[in-house]
Amino acid sequence: xxxxxxxxxxxxxxxxxxxxxxxxxxxxxxxxxxxxxxxxxxxxxxxxxxxxxxxxxxxxxxxxxxxxxxxxxxxxxxxxxxxxxxxxxxxxxxxxxxxxxxxxxxxxxxxxxxxxxxxxxxxxxxxxxxxxxxxxxxxxxxxxx
Length: 145
Description:
Elements: H1 3-21, E1 24-26, E2 28-29, E3 49-51, E4 63-70, E5 81-88, E6 98-103, E7 109-115, H2 129-144
Antiparallel strand pairs: 1-3, 2-5, 4-5, 4-7, 6-7
């Protein structure tokens, strides 16, 4: 194989494998997009997946993140909630899968979930087998006692 043909082959190979191994995530902000609700059902048919290493991604990365922030209701004002979905290159708590719930320094309730197991994993709140299986085992243990 001549040198130009080898370079062409390697370029095509890198481009194809890069596309095959890159993760796609939902990218939207509920404060800017009506199809990205903070409350209720997230319609996957009305939101597009973006390639996390592509030009459309606001934040390039190798995992997806869903960040929900909400304020508590007060005597004078009703609370609010906002949700951001996007790609991420690093997590705030050194893991690439799982959720963290906390109250930030200004008193907002924050839920931050990272995932990298499949395309579109930051779509909605879904119970997965890691949550369901321990609940089933626990209920069986309690039932036997």
